[in-house]
Structures are given as C-alpha cells and as structure tokens.
Amino acid sequence: MPFPLPLEFPAFNIYSTPLLLLVLQAFIFAFLLLVRYFKKRYVPALILSLLILITGYHRTTYTIGFMDWYDTYRNTKINYWLIALSLAIGPLLYFYVKSITTSNFRFRRKDFIHFIPVTIYIIYKVFIFIYDAAQPGFDDTQNGYLKIVLDEKYVNPLIGIFENLQMLLYLAFTIQLYYAYRKKIQEFFSNVYSLELNWIRNFLFIYSFLFLYSVFQGVVGSVITDLHWTQRWWYHFFTAVAIIYIGIKGYFTDTNTLNNLDFSVTIKEKNTVTETALSEDIIKNKEKIEQFMKEEKPFLDPDLNLPELSKKLKIPVSIVSETINSGFNKNFNDFVNSYRVDAVKKMLQEGKQEQLSLLGIAFECGFNSKATFNRVFKKLTNASPSQYSAAQN
After folding, report:
1. Quick check: 371 and 194 in contact, CB under 8 A?
2. Which of 23, 187, 292, 311 has most Cβ atoms within 10 angstroms of its Cβ?
3. How much is the pLDDT for 269?
4. How wide is the angle at C-alpha 17 spanned by C-alphas 58 and 253, nearest 5°?
5. How high does pLDDT run on average in the chain?
6. 331 pLDDT higher than 70
C-alpha cells in the first residue's frame, strides 16, 4: 500500500489563489505610490502606500495558511513576524485624509505621537522572539514559551480590544475631518464638484465597512459559534478586493490641486438676521456686491472663488465673506450659484433650449459639471432642469 504524499507548500486552491493574486496586485500599487512619493515628495502617496502595504501584509497570515505553510513547516517561526500592524491603520487613515484636505500639509514631529502604540507593540514582539529563541528546544516547536503563555493568552486579546476602540475613534475623527472640509469649501468655491473628494468618501466607507464586518465576525466567533478558517476567509477576501480598488483610485485620482487651496482666512458662520440688524458697513457692501454681480456677471466664470471675487471687488476676503453670510444669509457657493440658476432660468424663458442643450446652457451660465448643475438647480428651484424647461414650453 503506497504511503500518502506529504503536504507541500505552496498549495494553490480556491482560498489561497484569489488572496495571493489580489494582495500581489495591491503591493504593486503600493510600490507605484511609493515611487510617486520619492519623485514628487507627495505625502498623501506615501501614506496611502503604507496603508495598502499594511492592509495587504495582514492578509499574508491567511494567504500562506491556505497555501499549507503551517502544515508543511510544523516548526515555522513565522507567527513571530506576522505582526499585527493594525494599530497604525487608524492614524494612517486620519493623516491620509488630512494630508489631502489641508493646504500645504506637512507631517510634523509631534504627529509621530499617534504611532507610539504600534511602535511599542513592535518592540514587544521583537522582545518575545529574542526571549523565546534563547530557550532550549525553540527550534523544534512553532511557538515558544512567551508566545504561548503571554502573547496568545493575554496580549493578543487585549490588543484586539484596543485596536477596535482605537479604530472607532480614528474613523470618527477622520469622517468628521472630511465633512468639515466639504462644508468649508462651500465658503470658498462656487463650483465644488471636483473638490468634494467623493473618492475619499468611498475610501472611508470601505474602511468603515471592513471595520464593522471585522467586529461582527469577532463577536460571532467569540460569543455565538466558533468560526472555521474558511468562514473567516470572506473578511480577508473582501479586504483584498478593497485594497485593489483603493490602490487604483488612489493612484489615478489627482488631488494635487488641493495643495494650492488657501483656507487661511477665518470665515464667520452665516447668521439669520433682519435687514435692520445689519451694520451700515454690511449694508453698504451688500449693495456694492449686488450691483457688481448684476453688472459684471463674475458668476459666469466657472472657476470663481472667494479670494478672486474679493480681488475684483477690492474688498478684503473676510469682509466679503461676512457680507455674503450675514447680508445674504448664504454661503459663498449658494450665493454665486443662485445667480447662475437665475441666468439659466432666463435663458430657458427666452427659448435658448432650442439652440443649446440644457448642459450647454448650464456651461454658458458658469456651471462646470452636469452633476453640480442638476443638484444646485433642484436645490434652489425644487424642480429638475428638464422639468423646469418643459414647463416653459
């Protein structure tokens, strides 16, 4: 009777192969982003590269597991070096979004405080390896003394809890940062579609989904039923697919223009006040701005922004902003786009849709994207452009 053949590494199967291919492709994009950083010193590329590398690195445990590494090499020491670097994911998410939404972002020395936990954890992992490696019989076993009685039994569960709490906090801070940015650009720019960073919204949604899925899987595995390796595989598969998407979008999405945005001016929140409550200076500036908008029509410039309008009016940026927010009770974006919508309505009333498409009319009136035009028009008129156009016929 022939003896069964021993297990051999690598074993390519329906579990290991998809993870291997996806992770390798993710590493390629991480490398390309790293090259971009060294060529252009573009900090977001470096941060995203590290995010992809760490997220892909975490899939390594399961990838080589499904390839029969652990069964083939019974006394492997790889568990010591597959260090969970999840403690760096939250801070990297935060700084990636901050580096894109902050003008001329620079990583400061004090920012390294955020990476103290992961640094301590790496030092700890190196220490237990050095200690265990010095013990007799270490070469004949997979996990040494401290790895079993300290790391697996106590530290890993505590690190898992700390990781989840940390990730929850950093996701909350990062989402808050992103939406604060989206609100702020409404005060500075008249066309914000290209600046809204919907890619970042998707990026945050993906990491939030993966975090919640991981927590759900952990709760089910700890409280309800013990999950098999193949059942836990889905989380790693979803993660591997996600980092491919993140790598592609992160590499091909240009966010360099955001480096030139100047958010240094303090903008006052818009206030609902009566005309009599306005100061004489605001009333005077309001009249000047109204006259300038009607006569010079600066809103026809799709790239019009607050500093540019301030320059044309020869009024300080902060004063123009305060006048628009308090005098017109609108942010800069709504203020300028209200003139654009009025211009579109006028052209539709004149029957210009017979010579131009609705989108052509929108571009003539200062809009620079179909999505912005449709959204703004419906917001200010409670009707879509096509509905309004049909009503004019």
Report:
1. no
2. 23
3. 58
4. 60
5. 87
6. yes
Phi, psi of 305 (to 5 degrees): -135, 175
pTM score, two decimals? 0.85
Q: Are 67 and 12 in contact (CB under 8 A)?
A: yes
Question: pLDDT value at position 365?
Answer: 93
Nearest to 331 by CA among 286, 265, 269, 380: 269
Omega within 30 of 0 (cis) for the link into 10: yes
* Residue in this structure with the two tokens 């703004």, named with its chain if needed: 376
pLDDT at residue 315 is higher than 80: yes
Instruction: Write out pLDDT tens, residues 250-278.
Output: 888 877 666 666 666 656 555 555 454 56
